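hiii so um. not sure if this is the right channel but i have a protein structure encoded as tokens and i wanna go backwards to a sequence. like what aa goes where. can anyone help
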């Protein structure tokens, strides 16, 4: 995580760096800092906490320096204190470094440097880098024909580092050079008019240019006021061409909402409509045998002899994958496994033939998901066709590392999500899985046309049902939230297709309200977790009419018998069943099969309002970052 940004050109760097860091703050907000070069000195200013603290400090020391680097931190090594904030510098304060990632062998390097009497001022892994560069610049004569001793020194140091990292470095002794490095952590170079940029993610540089070059693993670039040169870690210069991004600068505005998260919850009807319009062919009719009602454009090898699907993901994307598994098995009839990418990396199952591997990541940058997919690609390469890698990505950022790594992508079209807690991107992932399951079922003739068209029709009703539900639910949930501002534990119950929604409801609450919460398949309660229940532990039960409705109601009864306050997420129906709930959050009575798209939304609202009621920072909860680019 962490965000890095760099600038070299003709304008004053500070404001450009700060505006870039603002767009990267979703990657971490434990501290922030920038370093610029002015009048032969490195000026480094750092501040603990959010970016506004740094902005405040910089008001006193702003310079017109035309070169600089900046960083917003998500702490990995060392507490979130100012002394651990980036940039880090060498002892003579001539070299400044910002890093996103982890230098795994930093302990050894630190010991070697300490033996040479280098003093460390932070607990970070990053601080070894400026000391190593300074050491090399001091002791090694420039290499013959080298364009830059600074570049040489950085290259030699990078070859000593183990781990996954993106780095930007400047030196007061080479004030016309900004060196950037990428090793498994994203870094993009931007080409402006007489100015160049680097950043962890494109939104940071989009206000200035759409011409970008995403560096690949094992590449470094030397940015000067005139030029960008790209090299590999062996020092060989590479031929590279920028590409033009088809994106506009992102409007980061709350549009009257108190928080981005609430705005993003309210954007969900539009997101579902956009996905449905993109994935399903509106004009298709039953006589049209040449085309498909679903527009995913999957190649034949993805479905014709397909025997198994495995899905790799983390966090909320993993929950979407669990709903995906239900759909792929129940609609398309394909056995599907869902793995935490972080577990899969170190204990992959034996290779199975004719297997489709799907990576789900809204950011397209989650280190574990990318590494698991890369491993899968690698261990299947050179194998016979039935074992070859068939990879599909589901992401909200097709321009991300995932998009560069995997050819076949389903773009979830949710628009940039600013709130750290995923809401609209989750719902968009669900729609992607409905489309994928229906497409595979249709292509493999696993579904009748009548059933297929009925489900598509049901999906098309969903956006207006979300709108109706939002109208009916929000005030009620806002009031309900007050009762839970002091609650310490929550239980969420669901079954079948709504079990992943129970997990997601619990995750949302944990993330933004810091209340301990667990999601369980309702039938599992009596096998242990029921011991947790008493009057202080509310239980949220998702009870949608369908084949497990009565079961969920019985499981909810069991919780109520242990004095838990029972909150139902269920359609309002006359009769005994719903009367068991102490509180009832009404949801439209749609087919159980489509219900997760509706049932997750009140749980997002509940988490949001409880967190807001507790006065917490909903959009940037403590200890989290939106894009988890470290292992
Ligand atoms: C979602 O609310 C979380 N912030 C987190 O679990 C997230 O889903 C996870 O880190 C995976 O991110 P990705 O979808 O970008 O891979």
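sure thing!! here u go:
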């Amino acid at each position: 995580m962490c965000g890095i940004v760099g600038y070299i050109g003709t304008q004053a760097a500070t404001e450009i760096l700060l505006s870039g860091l603002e767009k990267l703050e979703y990657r971490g907000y434990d501290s922030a800092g920038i370093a610029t070069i002015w009048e032969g000195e490195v000026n480094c200013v750092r501040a603990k906490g959010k970016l506004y603290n740094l902005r405040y400090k910089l008001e006193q020391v702003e310079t017109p320096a035309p070169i600089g680097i900046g960083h917003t931190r998500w702490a990995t090594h060392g507490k979130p204190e100012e002394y651990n904030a980036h940039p880090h510098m060498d002892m003579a304060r001539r070299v400044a470094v910002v890093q996103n990632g982890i230098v795994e062998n930093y302990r050894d390097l630190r010991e070697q440097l300490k033996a040479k009497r280098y003093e460390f001022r932070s607990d970070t892994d990053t601080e070894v880098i400026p000391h190593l560069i300074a050491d090399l610049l001091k002791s090694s004569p420039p290499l013959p024909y080298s364009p830059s001793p600074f570049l040489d020194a950085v290259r030699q140091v990078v070859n000593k580092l183990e781990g996954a990292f993106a780095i930007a470095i400047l030196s007061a002794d080479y004030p016309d050079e900004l060196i950037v490095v990428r090793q498994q952590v994203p870094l993009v170079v931007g080409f402006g008019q007489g100015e160049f940029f680097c950043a962890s993610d494109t939104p940071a540089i989009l206000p200035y240019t759409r011409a970008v070059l995403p560096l690949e693993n094992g590449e470094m670039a030397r940015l000067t006021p005139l030029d960008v040169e790209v090299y590999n870690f062996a020092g060989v210069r590479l031929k590279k061409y920028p590409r033009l991004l088809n994106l506009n600068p992102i409007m980061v505005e709350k549009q009257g909402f108190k928080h981005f998260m609430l705005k993003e919850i309210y954007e969900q009807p539009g997101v579902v409509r956009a996905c449905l319009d993109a994935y399903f062919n509106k004009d298709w009719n039953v006589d049209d045998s040449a085309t498909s009602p679903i527009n995913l454009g999957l190649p034949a090898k993805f479905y014709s002899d397909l025997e198994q699907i495995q899905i790799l993901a983390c966090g909320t994307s993993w929950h979407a994958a669990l709903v995906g598994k239900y759909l792929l098995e129940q609609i398309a009839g394909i056995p599907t496994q869902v793995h935490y990418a972080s577990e899969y990396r170190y204990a992959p199952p034996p290779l199975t033939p004719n297997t489709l591997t799907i990576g789900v990541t809204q950011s397209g940058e989650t280190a574990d998901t990318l590494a698991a997919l890369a491993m899968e690609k690698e261990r299947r390469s050179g194998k016979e066709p039935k074992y070859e890698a068939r990879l599909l990505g589901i992401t909200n950022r097709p321009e991300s590392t995932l998009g560069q790594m995997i050819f076949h992508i389903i773009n979830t079209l949710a628009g940039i999500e600013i709130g750290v807690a995923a809401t609209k991107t989750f719902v968009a992932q669900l729609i992607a899985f409905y489309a994928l399951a229906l497409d595979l079922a249709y292509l493999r003739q696993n579904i009748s046309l009548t059933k297929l068209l009925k489900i598509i029709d049901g999906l098309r009703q969903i956006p207006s049902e979300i709108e109706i539900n939002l109208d009916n639910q929000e005030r009620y949930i806002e009031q309900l939230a007050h009762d839970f501002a002091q609650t310490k534990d929550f239980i969420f119950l669901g079954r079948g297709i709504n079990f992943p929604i129970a997990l997601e409801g619990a995750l949302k609450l944990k993330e933004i309200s810091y209340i301990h919460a667990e999601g369980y398949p309702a039938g599992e309660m009596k096998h242990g977790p029921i011991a947790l229940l008493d009057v202080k532990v509310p239980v949220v039960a998702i009870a949608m009419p369908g084949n497990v409705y009565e079961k969920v109601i019985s499981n909810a009864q069991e919780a109520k018998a242990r004095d838990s306050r029972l909150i139902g997420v269920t359609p309002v129906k006359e009769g005994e069943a719903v009367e068991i709930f102490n509180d009832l959050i009404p949801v439209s009575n749609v087919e159980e099969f489509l219900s997760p798209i509706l049932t997750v939304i009140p749980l997002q609202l509940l988490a949001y309002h409880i967190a807001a009621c507790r006065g917490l920072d909903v959009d940037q909860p403590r200890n989290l970052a939106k894009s988890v680019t470290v292992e």
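oh and The mean pLDDT is 93.
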